[in-house]
């Protein structure tokens, strides 16, 4: 049936005009909407439609004030990045559409993913003999993908377990090979990193696995063990300290990280792998977990998390603009020192269980001497617009995650609040 051109035309309004009209479809408007906000456009509909009044009351305008979010992940993102994404959300550059609507095989998205990769390579100085993959399934999927790709069922592999995430990685690996814990900090409640000489590595192991930063326990490797296996392969889960400081990638066989702490929204998992380790996956390896297939297809074997990759790209750009990871590390050290000093100066009112030399720059767990005050601390902090300070359910207490995007002002505010809380409750 031929469709006659309709007299009805649908006005797609800019966010601000839609909000002013009290439209239900309006999304929150920021006062910082860029000057280049798109103009209203008018589309002629081909089919005649009846206009239906939306019976729902208009949505209240959302407050635009941002609070300090100390969550462990998903976590705070740089404001500059959020505003840039906002300015490009509706129409990306000359494409006439949002990044969310683009073909993942088109030239626009190709340029986005390629720029994200080259900026990440510049940030971490990734050598050319390493592949960079943008995958899905979170770091948890890598707990399986690593052994599936790097060893066969009869192969042994070594795990240093310094916290819950390393333990989960080890348990998953047991399904696919002969995984062994060569050191565990469990008896000391995961507050330490071993002296590397104390770790009895198996020379026949296919790799040595570490979790570079334990997000729940706040324990961070400050340098890395030399793998004593024949291949010399060290594998690291860097989910919660990825891009927080420079790393010598050439020391690792594989580095993997979920994006949602330091470099983007959840949904993107980054894998950096030495190319000669690709291509030996076990036969049962699902196609999505096979590094060879992902590398051969430039992470586009299936539809990737396009918008998340775009966001990661904006974060990488921002980190480069800040002067790269050396500068970022300086800022992170300053924030962490401020917070740890506050514990040490509190005369035991606040306590951090982690051994001082391996305290994380990213995730800072702490408790109160008077543990009965912890709920009050979290409640009062939230009133002061500092949220997500509750410790992980498995360990309790408090935890402040102070990733790259947490401004110094957030940590200063927390420290001032801690001093005031102590003065009132000591
Ligand atoms: N490893 C570490 C160190 C983590 O912090 C997390 C998540 N908090 C994971 C692995 C699991 O990541 P995902 O939720 O992306 O699977």
Describe this entry's structure for a reader:
With 426 residues, the protein is an alpha/beta fold. It is built from 10 helices and 16 strands. It has helices at 15-20, 79-89, 107-124, 138-150, 164-173, 291-296, 306-321, 325-344, 374-383, 408-425; strands at residues 9-12, 41-44, 68-69, 130-135, 156-161, 178-184, 208-211, 213-214, 219-220, 234-237, 254-258, 269-274, 350-351, 363-368, 386-387, 398-401. The strands form 5 sheets. Strands 4-12-11-10-7-5-6 form a 7-stranded mixed sheet. Strand 5 (156-161), helix 5 (164-173) and strand 6 form a beta-alpha-beta unit. Helix 8 (325-344) packs parallel to helix 10 (408-425). The longest helix has 20 residues, at 325-344. The termini are far apart. 4'-deoxy-4'-aminopyridoxal-5'-phosphate binds at residues 73, 138-140, 165, 211, 215, 237, 239-240, 258. 4'-deoxy-4'-aminopyridoxal-5'-phosphate is lined by residues 73, 138-140, 165, 211, 215, 237, 239-240, 258. It is an enzyme of class 2 (transferase). It catalyses: O-phospho-L-serine + 2-oxoglutarate = 3-phosphooxypyruvate + L-glutamate; 4-(phosphooxy)-L-threonine + 2-oxoglutarate = (R)-3-hydroxy-2-oxo-4-phosphooxybutanoate + L-glutamate.
């Amino acid at each position: 049936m031929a469709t006659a051109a309709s007299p009805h035309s649908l006005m797609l309004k800019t966010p601000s005009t839609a909000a002013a009209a009290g439209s239900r479809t309006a999304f929150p408007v920021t006062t910082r909407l860029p000057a280049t906000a798109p103009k209203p456009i008018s589309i002629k509909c081909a089919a005649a439609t009846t206009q239906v009044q939306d019976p729902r009351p208009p949505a209240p305008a959302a407050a635009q004030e941002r609070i300090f979010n100390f969550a462990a992940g998903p976590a705070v993102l740089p404001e500059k990045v959020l505003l840039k994404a906002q300015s490009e959300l509706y129409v990306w550059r000359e494409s006439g559409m949002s990044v969310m609507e683009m073909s993942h095989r088109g030239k626009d998205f190709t340029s986005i993913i390629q720029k994200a990769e080259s900026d990440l390579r510049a940030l971490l100085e990734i050598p050319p003999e390493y592949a960079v993959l943008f995958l899905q399934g979170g770091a948890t999927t890598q707990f399986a993908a690593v052994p599936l790709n790097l060893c066969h069922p009869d192969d042994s592999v070594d795990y240093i377990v310094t916290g819950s995430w390393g333990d989960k990685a080890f348990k998953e690996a047991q399904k696919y090979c002969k995984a062994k814990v060569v050191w565990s900090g469990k008896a000391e409640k995961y507050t330490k990193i071993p002296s590397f000489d104390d770790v009895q590595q198996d020379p026949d192991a296919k790799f040595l696995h570490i979790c570079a930063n334990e997000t729940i326990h706040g324990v961070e490797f400050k340098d890395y063990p030399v793998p004593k296996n024949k291949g010399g392969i060290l594998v690291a889960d860097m989910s919660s300290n990825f891009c927080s400081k420079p790393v010598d990638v050439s020391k690792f066989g594989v580095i993997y990280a979920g994006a949602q702490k330091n470099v983007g929204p959840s949904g993107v998992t980054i894998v950096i792998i030495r190319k000669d380790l690709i291509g030996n996956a076990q036969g049962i390896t699902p196609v999505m977990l096979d590094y060879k297939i992902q590398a051969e297809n430039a992470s586009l074997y299936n539809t990737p998390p396009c918008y998340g990759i775009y966001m990661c790209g904006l974060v990488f750009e921002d980190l480069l603009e800040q002067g790269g990871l050396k500068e970022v590390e300086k800022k992170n050290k300053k924030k962490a020192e401020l917070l740890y000093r506050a514990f040490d100066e509190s005369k035991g009112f606040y306590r951090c269980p982690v051994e001082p030399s391996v305290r994380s720059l990213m995730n800072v767990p702490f408790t109160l001497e008077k543990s009965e005050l912890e709920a009050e601390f979290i409640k009062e902090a939230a009133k002061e617009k500092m949220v997500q300070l509750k410790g992980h359910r498995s360990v309790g207490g408090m935890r402040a995650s102070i990733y790259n995007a947490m401004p110094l002002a957030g940590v200063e505010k927390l420290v001032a609040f801690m001093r005031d809380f102590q003065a009132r409750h000591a």
